[in-house]
Amino acid sequence: MKPIIVGTAGHIDHGKSALVRALTGIDPDRLEEEKRRGITIDLGFAHLEVAAPDGEHLRFGFVDVPGHERFVRNMLAGVGGIDLVVLVIAADEGIKPQTREHFDICRLLSLERGLTLLTKADLVDTETLDILRLEVEDFLRGSALATSPIIPVSVRTGIGLEDLKRELAACARKISPKDAGAITRLPLDRVFTMKGFGTVVTGTLIAGTIKKDEELELFPAGRRVRVRGVQVYGKAAERAVAGERTALNLAGVNKPELERGMVLTAPGQLGSSSRLDVKLSLLDSSPPVEDGSRIHFHAFSSEAIARVRLYQGREIAPGETTLAQLRLAAPLVLVPGDRFIVRRFSPVVTIGGGVVLDARPVEKMALASRMSFLRRLDGDSEAALAARIERRGTRGAMLGQLVEELGQAPSRVELALAPLLRANRVVRDGDFLMHRAACLRLAEELERLVSDFHLHNPLVGGISKESLREKARVSPPAFQTALAVAVEEGKLHLTAELIHAEGAGVKMRDDEAESRRIIEQAFQSAGLKVPALKDVLAGLKIDRARAQKIVTLLLREKALVKISDDLVFHRSALEALRNSVAAVKGQSPRIDVAGFKNLTGVSRKYAIPLLEYLDRERVTRRVGDERLIL
């Protein structure tokens, strides 16, 4: 069953609640004061199921909003999640102040589907009704409702109610369902306790799915709560999907800890922010707004005081649109693409609205770069994603960071990534992503650092990965990604753990080459009765620093093998030792220290370190005082 959220809009006492009651049989005025005074003070809710002409079943959830100017902030708490607006104008009064303000709010929120109703049609004659229709057509000109039906109705006589149901069904067929696969977000618009159940919250589920016994995260508190029960339109359900009016029975939280404006989300995927980069528009009727002005900010059921920081000029004029940053007094959970309303700080009237471009703006960014970045965010999803990755430069981005920044599920981010990866505009290593231009810059920097290393270390075959990463001062994922590109393009080469440039290698002078030969020959000819390394180095004609580098080179090449702090052996001697031990296995599977000394002819000074080396190499395994030959 396709869920559609319908919001009423219009002046006080123009018949919004009576209309909802006539359509659904449910009284949306739930408060005692509302019933006593005959006006809607807070949000009211009702629902209606309709079968469309093509057989599709539609479920309309009505959000009945207050029409009185004093309760516009309550109206704003309910209008954010609606799919379709019903603009209500009383035939006997016509267009009034809150008609205009509610209509402006709907336009600012980009509500593209809706109907206009001329209520109380039974109170006026046909000529008056025709004149009002012309006035309304002029009022709606240039808006999304300009081509929508204008229907005279009367809840007293029933005139137009069936026409209204048919038009609602026709509009609903053109509305795309909300994204049930997106990251769950439920802005809370009511909080209460119910005997036998405990804490209950309600709201319009604007994205995702909520299931019974699921864990959710509550913002801005940042705490986890459990869903004990789910109701959709007053009936128990196993789950609620995007686009449905939803009530949740929560465990792990009490009513005093909750309030309207809080948001329940999927755990660990979204965060709150007190700074928003936005595209801000003012109404033609608004006064100018200066840089630094305070305003009232409304998004879904949330509201906060905000200060406007303009990126262009000292003020924004009526009817203009500009890029700005809104600095909120309290953090809110919003994602790019969310729309909002702003009201003047005093007197409190609606002056404009806009769309969130970046809910996680970086603090330090050159103005020209920021403006260019925000304009790209205002484009399609592919351009926006590319801009976000490019902005990070050689730092790159993890997939999880982009999920939080975009407010989209990982699968949606992957979908937007696919064409960027195919076009080779973005380089990927697991969940790490980097813009290709930045990756190439980092690869070039790695090449420069390696060349510089070769210049100052001619006796070393290359630089280790970790040493190079530390010199480059980048994260391990960024380093690994850029290194892979440099290696793929043949600019750098990886031998074991050493990185070296194309054509680069150890470059020795004649005295260094002679010293290398002497060192290797000294250990090769000694077999297992090796000399002390310091004694060999002392006999060379080169300085100790260069001699040590030559030893390091021989160790890396595995011509020499260091088995303890003081003992170094030639690889040929150790290979011969392996063969000798293997030959002994044919006579006995075990050997003790004495037998090993007899086999090799070495003293205990050499025997114990050599046996421990064989244990590490899994040639032998110690069992008590003996070694088992493997």
Task: Describe this protein's structure.
- The structure is a single chain.
- The protein is of the alpha+beta class.
- The protein has 5 domains: 172 residues, P-loop containing nucleotide triphosphate hydrolases (Rossmann fold); 81 residues, Translation factors (Elongation Factor Tu (Ef-tu), domain 3); 86 residues, Elongation Factor Tu (Ef-tu), domain 3; 129 residues, Winged helix-like DNA-binding domain superfamily/Winged helix DNA-binding domain (Arc Repressor Mutant, subunit A, Orthogonal Bundle); 114 residues, Winged helix-like DNA-binding domain superfamily/Winged helix DNA-binding domain (Arc Repressor Mutant, subunit A, Orthogonal Bundle), CATH 1.10.10.10.
- The strands form 9 sheets. Strands 7, 8, 9, 11, 12, 13, 15 and 16 form an 8-stranded antiparallel beta sheet that branches.
- α11 packs across α12 and α18 crosses α19.
- The longest helix is centred in the last third of the chain and has 21 residues.
- The protein is elongated, with a radius of gyration of 37 Å.
- The two termini are 70 Å apart.
